[in-house]
Amino acid sequence: MGLRLPPLAGKVAYGGFFVVLTPLGLWAWSSRLTCPYAPLHSSWIGIPLLALGGLLMVLAMWRLWRDGGGLPMNAFPPPRVVTSGVYALLSQPIYVGFVLCCAGVAILSNSASGLWIVTPVAALGCLALVLGWEGPDLRRRFGSQLPAPWIGLPSGKGFWPLSRRVGTALAALVPFVISYLTVKAMGIPPDGFETRGIWEWAIPVLPATMPVYASVYLVVPLTFLLCAERAQMRLLAVSAWMATGLNTLLYATVPATAMFRPVAGTDWMSQWLAWEQRMALPAAGSLPSFHVTWAVICAGYLARGSLRRWTAFCWLWCAGLGVSCLTTGMHSLADVVAGALTGAVCLRPEKLWRWMLDCIERLGSHWKAWRFGPLRVINHGLWAGLAGFAVLLIAGMSAGGSQLGWVVMVALCALIGAGVFAQWAEGSSALLRPFGYYGSLLGGLAALSIMALIQGPAAGVMAAFALGAPWAMAIGRLRCAVQGCCHGRPVDWGIRVTNPHSRVVKMAGLSGTPIHPTPLYSILANLVIGIILLRLRFSGAGPFQIAGLYLLLAGMSRFAEEAYRGEPQTRRIAGLPLYQWMAAGSAALGMVLMALRGPPLTPMCGPGAWLLLSSALWGVVSAFAMSMDFPASARRLSRLTG
Fold this sequence. Notes:
Layout: H1 7-32, H2 43-66, H3 93-108, H4 112-142, H5 162-186, E1 193-194, H6 210-214, H7 216-226, H8 230-253, E2 256-257, H9 268-279, H10 290-303, H11 311-327, H12 333-347, H13 349-364, E3 369-372, E4 375-378, H14 381-399, H15 404-426, H16 437-453, H17 458-483, E5 490-495, H18 503-506, H19 518-538, H20 543-562, E6 572-573, E7 576-577, H21 578-594, H22 609-627, E8 628-629
Helix pairs in contact: 1-4, 2-3, 3-4, 4-20, 5-8, 7-10, 8-10, 8-12, 10-11, 10-12, 13-17, 14-15, 14-17, 14-22, 15-16, 16-17, 17-19, 17-20, 19-20, 20-21
């Protein structure tokens, strides 16, 4: 699935882009960005990060040249798989090294935007490349020959040696450590609020409970060392990644804090507790309590693993640790409850994933329609209508009631653009009346450009639609699941669709074949994007930062998602699907927008009567366009499906 370019010219262009243009572009982008967080300047941190990152990249490139027989270019990949050297340690040492170099340069140059914006974006870009291009290509070419690096997930079944458990523990815990240090370095936001109730200040601080509170530092690594079965270790690592991602998202978007309650004693346990509080300053990243999250996960795995005979003791320890969070004054009750909830959510990732797959599978096999004379109403109109209602409501609340006319105009242009683009990209007698996301994006951008030319409030309306778009996409993907559009390609463990009206069956001929649940991938990504953008809106970010970040994150997630989609009608250009090229363009445009300065946004307004009525009417329009048709008509665009 690699790019198809002339060998020599392609290698020169590709190498120049990633080796020269990308670093210079990120440096220039960093200089144009504004960042609300303080920079971190330390040669003791920056130099080791830069040296380690550079060493990883050089060693990996040498291995690819010597053992792989080619250049370190995923568009022109080496013909042989490399399993030795640094590749026995990490699966992606070049990308890891590049991100470390970005962080090191940002710290050495005292760049806040380089550290807090460019480095995370570089990491997400590398992840998108691996998920959306390099990973699938490597699996296709090498399959079982791919190495299982020391720092990574175990594969297969059976006993997992102790030394490999240490590597898996590092793979699971290093992201958590990075998240923890990042949250602490960012500090308490200006709009942070206290979660501790008045009555909680009366709870006595008991330094004697400090050993219970600190026991998690021993139990977490011990849990990884005791999980000797590969499948359990794999699930434990996934649970750790889920908990890190979920809690970090909450830390970044919910400005909660719980100030530590003071310690009065002078004995050694009191001094230990006072030291713990000093090390944990500032009191950021308190809700959910990661102590409790880890306790739930560890108790759950130990109770059904090597310590299953000690199940009661495992859960008793978990409860005691939750209580110690209160008696040491380190957390509020809200922190403890939230930590228990996130731990429970992440405890059984396989069951949670299976439940989500079953939900999408049921939607995919329940296409229904009702006839009202010549009109046919398809059941996925519910999701199309809700998506239209959501995007106009959120955009209208953000733009303000006085801008409702502009909001409706942009929404109409986006809908027209979605239909026109889809006819160009995928239109056929079989598709009849398709709609395309990138068409809606282009239509909306065209309307915003015209608005800017006539001195309209283009920046504010653009940010308003960026806020609403992820929620509309998340809801709209439920329509895709029913309709069968945007479906995945075959995979061993996927969802099965058998309804003859679904495009999975009607166009792709994949009835009963397990396929990737790509609508679910999109839903999860858009929920995360939507939450982050709402936080930016309420924290006072500018319109171009909000709109640019939406395009950037949506482009990266779509690039990854597209690698697992399986519509046969999708065009391919130079070996990649059309939509991956457009996703890359979306990310690039987002970076440009984030570097611009714009007017401040007015506070969000409430959902007034006119806005609610307009949103409801737009929901009806969206449902009619995407889920109602005239099946007996021979006119163009009169039918959605046969």
